[in-house]
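Thread: Newbie trying to understand structure tokens

Hi all, I'm a second-year student working on a class project, and my supervisor (Dr. K.) asked me to get a predicted structure for one chain before our next meeting. I've only ever worked with sequences, so writing a 3D structure as a token string is new to me. If someone could post the tokens and maybe explain what I'm looking at, I'd be very grateful. Here's the chain:
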Amino acid sequence: MSAVLAGASGLRLAVIGAGPVGLALALAAARRLPTAQVCVYDRLPVGHDVSGDPRTLALSQGSVLALQRLGVWAAMAERAEPIQAVHVSQQQPGLLDLLGGGPAPELLIRAVDEGVPQLGAVIPYGALAAPMRAAWLAACAQAPQRLSVRWGEAVSGVRPVSGGVEIDVGVGGAAGALVEPHDLAVVAEGGVFADQARKAIARDYGQTAWVGTVGLEGGEVGVAHERFTPQGPVALLPLPGTTLADDGRTVRRRAALVWCVDQRDDAVAALTEAQRLAVLTHLLPARVGRLVSISPLKSFALGLNAERTLVQGRTVRIGNAAQTLHPVAGQGLNLGLRDAHELVARLARHSDVDQALRRVEWQRAPDRWAMIAATDFLARSFTWPWPGLSTLRGAGLAALGQVGPLRSLLARRMMFGGR
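---
Reply by user tm_fold:
Sure, no problem. This is what the structure looks like when written as tokens:
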């Protein structure tokens, strides 16, 4: 089958991985490519319940709008907490702090200042993934002749062939039991850094992220906090569940915690819950409120693992399958959703599949590499022993906080990516 014929009618599209990025691509393709045959493969069985998965995800406003266009946001909005502001600050005293004077090393971005209803939203993985799975199953039921899903079938290989690809599909746990042809395969099965095979660009940051939730009293509702500390960033993301304390005045809140530390000097593992609360209270600014509780924490290793290109022949990698980033900016999922959107948009505009893929590669490169470079620089900067580095970082934060156009430019980039 020629490239033009494949793109003009009956494109056979395989989506490998039924996570949020893979399902976003499949749902968009079902709408915008009305003659395409779309098959989603996922290693998890059909009965696997993802709705209770508590992992926390930060969605940019651009991602929220994308989910609205796909028709799935209404089913998940009640379990999402809007982000009304983002506060970034530095904990360690740099030279400017010791000398006194000058603006504080902090940056505050507010939705109201940017003319948007929210900067994004925080949502549990299960609350995001379950409605997307349900939407795809409903789409398959409505158009079974062209939309399908293969639960419990792992793809063990993708091979290029003339005009397309062949994928090896495991049945009943037997890898390679079937070979199926497609015009295009999109790999959206990413995983975490520690479990991934290393890609063309790989860097172990020697850092551990401890994740869980904390309870707070007071502070600002709907504000995400990022605090730069000597060992790494600490982030608090607002979660649903705001209540009033017994006094009827003090606000009680929950927040997702991401606490990054040096693996070689990781004291968090040995701390009790009370000690962890005490350390976090010291690290975080007073404006977050009073920390009153902390959940058991889980840890995972941090690193960069990225392909140099999204496209290799008729195989495209998106999301964590293309780039796994440090969580310092919370942009990994948002980058993957933009990958998915642009791929479907280009396939819809071009009858020639290969031409569409070339456009995807060119169009996505600036956004991808800007985010990869920014997160990589920030992550590595915490490991550099250079004198004055904290001062420079603090001065940069203060400058962004004081210069409105720069602050708005950064806000737009974080909400919508490079456009």
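A couple of things are worth pointing out once you decode it. The radius of gyration is 22 Å. Confidence is low (pLDDT under 50) at residues 1-8. Feel free to ask follow-ups in this thread.
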